[in-house]
Amino acid sequence: MIDLYYWPTPNGHKITLFLEEMSLPYAIHPINIGKGEQFAPDFLKIAPNNRMPAIIDADPADGGDPVSVFESGAILIYLAEKTGQFYGSTPRERIETHEWLMWQMGGLGPMAGQNHHFRNYAPEKIPYAIDRYVKETNRLYGVLDRRLADRAFVAGDYSIADMAAYPWVVPHEMQGQTLDDFPNVKRWFDAIAVRPATIRAYARGKEVNPNPGIRTDEERKILFGQTATNTPKA
Question: Which residues does the UniProt record annotate as the domain GST C-terminal (predicted)?
């Protein structure tokens, strides 16, 4: 059994995509980020960066004590190595999987996240910031589109690299992007959307939080107002 500490955000969806593809038994422990549950001392023991998702695997491959893992990319690698699936079958394929996973972790996710913030959540609309991140998101979609020009998925067969990127493309309209501008991304996106595991994963998200979004000033303060001095400690 894997305990998944989760909220249905793009990073959270990455992990349910993998778990549903593998039909691994898991239990969701909701971490309501709008209420600040990511700062609870018990959660910080396994996720010191105050972010979900995180997992505890009670049945690690080495048969030892339970293993906890935080950071969505690290969790995907851990699960891929544990199961031997969605990771590439050769060293060269794994290099490509790592490259595109890191591309998402270091590029698409952070840039689209800032895009969401300044476009949709910031109390003051700053044209320079909005323009900066909408354009950079657009550039990254172009990178992905070129990569997918001659292949179905980003690193050979469907892999953790696709599972990492897909949830950040789901809210493309919130990012000011049109998939019709990126036909290869659109084809890739549509193929992943209809996978039974994808449908199940997103259904689990709706069960956990039927009404997503940031609605109150208190939620904004919790999500966007933390510093080193006012963040709760484990």
Answer: 90-214
